Automatic annotation (TrEMBL):
<dbReference type="GO" id="GO:0005737">
    <property type="term" value="C:cytoplasm"/>
</dbReference>
<dbReference type="Pfam" id="PF01266">
    <property type="entry name" value="DAO"/>
</dbReference>
<feature type="domain" description="FAD dependent oxidoreductase">
    <location>
        <begin position="7"/>
        <end position="368"/>
    </location>
</feature>
<dbReference type="InterPro" id="IPR036188">
    <property type="entry name" value="FAD/NAD-bd_sf"/>
</dbReference>
<dbReference type="InterPro" id="IPR006076">
    <property type="entry name" value="FAD-dep_OxRdtase"/>
</dbReference>
<protein>
    <recommendedName>
        <fullName>FAD dependent oxidoreductase domain-containing protein</fullName>
    </recommendedName>
</protein>
Length: 406
């Protein structure tokens, strides 16, 4: 292994790969990305891939700004690498089933207008042509967001990696980080299973394992591993075309649907989210592509709602349930920026925001690191924002669970 690097990225998920690409594109060719398994083997591989420009009627501006960069990034990657980056701008629907949620959609529309996000309010009859296989008989209104869609995780990461390598970044898999040298109160080197890399700058993009990586440097990273599950139906007949079927969310039922490989992905939040701290001294994501056993009882209500919304699912079997660990923070927003330790940066906690923000966050941090000034003002994401309570695992866990329940 090389003895030195200008920067070391720890974590080979979509966030780490986005950072690798954007640092390389900015001219930092002597950058190394380390992944203890294969790329995406932590949480990225099992993500449902939704890209949402609006989290809700009170959604933060930074979310829309970061997600809005994805189409431009996809076009850039395609032009530079020739790879399909997996971005599918099929549009997204939000359905309202009650007067209260119609008002929510109106508030969402006002907020979208403030943020410059295209959104059209529609009645059920004007929505049927977009999703003819859904039952909209109880739908009172819908919000149509043409800029939303989904990303195919493997394709997106492959394109980012191809671009990063073309810009001179080194990608090293099967290499475990064992320690971070902070002699003199700043980052000096990264110790790995394959030797030592001297470096003045480390970016912790280790997802649900970001807390364990931060602890190596004596820095608290308040990321909580929490289980999330979604189901995948058998192939429908006729099969759904994922490149022509909008994504769909029903917020008041905590339900989402999207087409994938002729099937339907069905998911949503649960009222009793489950933390996934490993037993003993084990670290999150220590095993590659690890899934928890499906919680069929907890998933059953979502599957029933999906069948009511899409009647053909009542005649279709559930092929599998993906039940994996995602990384969450006490307030649901990612951690992005400098830590209190000189030379250590954090990019973690994307459980609520998924694939859609990874591109924008990679660009934001790469610009900040290489130029000293970020293009976007994202103080709401600074890693130190929680103060002293973040060092208490019980506090961070309870706050993260409370955020998911809302």
């Amino acid at each position: 292994m090389g003895a030195s690097a200008r920067a070391v990225i720890i974590g080979g998920g979509v966030v780490g790969c986005s950072l690798a690409y954007h640092l390389g594109r900015a001219g930092w060719r002597d950058t190394v990305l380390l992944e203890q398994h294969e790329l995406t083997d932590g949480s990225t591989w099992h993500t449902a891939g939704f890209v949402t420009s609006m989290r809700g009627p009170d959604g933060p501006g930074w979310h829309a700004r970061l997600a809005g960069y994805l189409p431009a990034l996809a076009a850039m990657l395609r032009a530079e690498t020739g790879h399909d980056p997996g971005w599918r701008p099929v549009g997204g629907l939000r359905l309202a089933l009650s007067h209260a949620h119609v008002d929510e959609l109106r508030r969402l529309a006002r907020r979208a207008d403030e943020l410059g996000v295209p959104l059209e309010l529609r009645g059920a009859s004007a929505t049927m042509n977009l999703v003819p296989r859904l039952d909209l008989s109880d739908v009172q209104a819908a919000a149509w967001l043409p800029g939303e869609g989904f990303v195919r995780p493997k394709d997106f990461v492959n394109a980012l990696v191809a671009g990063a390598v073309a810009h001179g970044v080194s990608i090293r898999t099967g290499v475990r980080v064992t320690g971070i040298d902070t002699t003199g109160g700043q980052v000096r080197a990264v110790h790995t299973s394959d030797g030592v890399i001297e470096t003045p700058l480390v970016i912790n993009a280790a997802g649900a394992a970001a807390g364990a990586v931060g602890a190596m440097a004596g820095v608290v990273v308040p990321v909580v591993p929490i289980l999330h599950q979604y189901g995948v139906s058998e192939v429908l007949h006729p099969a759904l075309d994922p490149d022509a079927t909008p994504t769909c969310r029903i917020p008041e039922q905590s339900l989402y649907l999207r087409a994938a490989n002729g099937c339907v992905i069905v998911g949503g939040s649960r009222p009793d989210p489950v933390p996934a701290w490993p037993a003993g001294d084990a670290e999150p994501l220590a095993k590659a592509r690890e899934l928890a056993a499906p919680d069929e009882e907890a998933f059953a209500p979502l599957w029933q709602l999906a069948g009511e919304r899409m009647p053909e699912l009542r005649r279709t079997k559930l092929a599998k349930i993906m039940h994996g660990v995602e990384a969450f923070t006490p307030d649901g927003a990612p951690l992005a920026g400098r830590s209190a330790l000189p030379g250590l940066w954090i990019a973690a906690g994307f459980g609520l925001h998924g694939m859609g923000l990874a591109g924008g966050l990679g660009r934001h941090l790469a610009e900040w690191i290489t130029s000293g000034t970020p293009s976007w003002e994202l103080d709401a994401l600074l890693p130190e924002r929680f103060g002293a309570p973040a060092a208490n695992r019980d506090w961070t866990t309870s706050r993260a669970l409370d955020t998911l329940r809302r």
